[in-house]
Amino acid sequence: MNALAKLAIDAHGGLDRWKQFEKLSAHLVQGGVLWRLKGQAGTLDDTNLTIGLRTELDSHYPFGAPGLKSRFEPNRVAIEAADGTVLEELRDPRKSFAGHTLQTPWTNLQLAYFVGTAMWTYLNMPFVLAWPGVTCEERSPWSENGESWRRLEVNFPDSVATHCSKQTVYFDKEGFLKRHDYDVEIAGNTPGAHYMDGYVEVSGIKLPTVHRIFARQPDGTANREPLVVSIDVSNIEVT
């Protein structure tokens, strides 16, 4: 394993500890301009999720209306009733985003796919760095706010549904997550700079609970206005 990836995984509780769990659940409060831009204002402002830690899956509930939930897997996304009855589904959902720009509205199924890929990646980081087929290479340090952060270029295989195949993750000297850069392919390759803070420890695993995402400029700096997405995570459980 890459030395920086190992430092980060160990700082967050260690791979052996992470492998003792299969699922993570949490409560989310979300904001930012993205949801309105995509025609989904209010749909997921206050919701819960469950993600897989050994397989790539995600469910948000409620999903818009009370009693509805989403189910995301890389090759299928669905909206279900509380009892699991499938109300809508979409196979090969990533293909449905062909030609999209940042301004293109999302259907409910497309929203379910986006938040599935995003939250699965966010809440499995940095442990996903040890996922089969994921490769990492350390790049030159980055200076921001008077701090020097180590950077890891991460390449994801096609089998992982995430923002894009090449991403960059930033860590402080102790190995804790500070920032995560990616281009959102399904929204016209929009570049994002995602900052993390507010660490808590849950069952021996350390996780950030405050997520703020901004547009990333060509020089790598973040444009702090407007706030694209905010995610506040609470009531985390791993089982």
Under CATH at level 1, the class stands as Mainly Beta
CATH topological fold name: outer membrane lipoprotein receptor (LolB), chain A
Principal-axes geometry comes out as globular
Report the biggest beta sheet as strand number plus sense, adding barrel if it closes.
11 strands, antiparallel
Number of strands: 14
Percentage of residues in strands:
over 45%
The CATH level-2 architecture is identified as Clam
Residue windows where pLDDT falls under 50 for at least 5 positions: none
What structural category do the secondary elements indicate? Answer: mainly beta
What is the CATH superfamily classification?
Lipoprotein localisation LolA/LolB/LppX
Radius of gyration: 17 Å
- Figure out the total of helices: 4
Q: What separation lies between the terminal Cα atoms?
A: 26 Å
Helix content: 10-25%
- What's the average pLDDT? 97
Total domain count: 1
State the order of secondary-structure elements, H for helix, E for strand. HHEHEEEEEHEEEEEEEE
